[in-house]
Amino acid sequence: QVQLVESGGGLVQPGESLRLSCAASGSIFSTDAMGWYRQAPGKQRELVAVTSGGRTNYADSVKGRFTISRDNAKNTVYLQMNSLKPEDTAVYYCRVDLKRVVTMVYWGQGTQVTVSS
Fold it and tell me: Nearest CA to 82 among 30, 16, 28, 24?
């Protein structure tokens, strides 16, 4: 069983930055995927960024502005969000995919990010 605890959301103005953190309990390997998704009101949940085995993948809408990183010793994944835009407003969810005999997916509780002037 894996539990995910997110932190770092808040209200910022356009152009400002935020850093999200997600700490995972349990056994997480570097080859397991750790990532961030977001869901805006009335929209489907979408991938923001994911990292696994040293590789990263980003949604086109955040490339060049967001950076995902992880500290494997702390089982923690981060999302540095720069140059935030109002359209980045959403609930951001941490997700971990444990690649075992079967893949097990765990979600965090979500943290609100609001970008508004």
Answer: 16
